Amino acid sequence: MDEKQKEQFIKLTKFLGQVLGKQYEVVFHVIDKKGTYIAAIENNHISGRTLESSLDTSISELIQKKVYLKKDFLYDYKALVEKNKFVRGSTFFIKNSDELVGILCINHDASVIRDAICKIIDIEKLDDMGEFLSQDESSNLEINDLANVETLSRSIEEILAQNIDMSYLNSNYQLSITQKEEIAKTLYEKGIFNIKGSVAIVAKFLKISEPSVYRYLKKFKK
Length: 222
Description:
Helices cover 41% and strands 23% of the residues. The protein has helices at residues 3-20, 57-64, 111-124, 144-147, 156-163, 166-169, 177-189, 198-206, 210-221, and strands spanning 24-32, 35-42, 73-81, 85-96, 99-108, 150-151.
């Protein structure tokens, strides 16, 4: 993605954030050879993410599996924020021919509306309308095939914790070379290494050198 195209999507992100309102988080990710990073974000109070935050695990996996070659966008899927709040997510793949150069995500926080409806149902004793609040499990999504819901994470460390048992890494337990390679392979298949800065952090957690991580990646790609 060149700088002119990047600037246009940054402006579009700000525009959508203003037009849609505070219940919609709009996030623009740039994808380049160095990795993926957030170039613009509006209404980030919904997820608490910043320009320093990482790409979400499920989106990383979609990139790894090249879903963007089959679809131009995904819409209306569940995303989890801070373990207890659901939002509705949509993702638009920004492509130059078949090359993915960016991602535009919109997350709708409908919790205020749902809370209001719940209060009305409670006040009016409309128990038989419970199904009115149920969320549609169907979706156009392949994200459902990956991990049920997307989790909006703020850091690579959080993403690692979602995919591997951190208790081993935070203890004095010595992982074998085979175990370290298996963990690295799991993270590779999840698309973690599409995230900028992930190699250094994975190397730190696995207590190996960055060149060792790159050797694993070269092996996995083959």
